Amino acid sequence: MASTAHSRRYTTSRDPDDMAVASFVLGLVGLLVMNLLLGPVAMVLALLALRYGTARRGRAVLGLLLGVCDLVVLGVLVDLDNTVSWSF
Known about the structure:
Layout: H1 16-30, H2 35-51, H3 57-81
């Protein structure tokens, strides 16, 4: 009797390609809003995607760079405002 198993593999962890795309999107959105939260999340997702061998290596690297840029933008904004708190 022949095996009729599906060719798609099922894993309990996230697919590295999805992590690379999510890293890119979160890094891009983080340049506009919530860069303190989205920058590190984008960096972690990019590093995990690269570690697990994503096929979308370019997006993972861009997500990593955008995550770093998020934190740089935050640092520049805090420096220009001369404060660490967000007061309106």
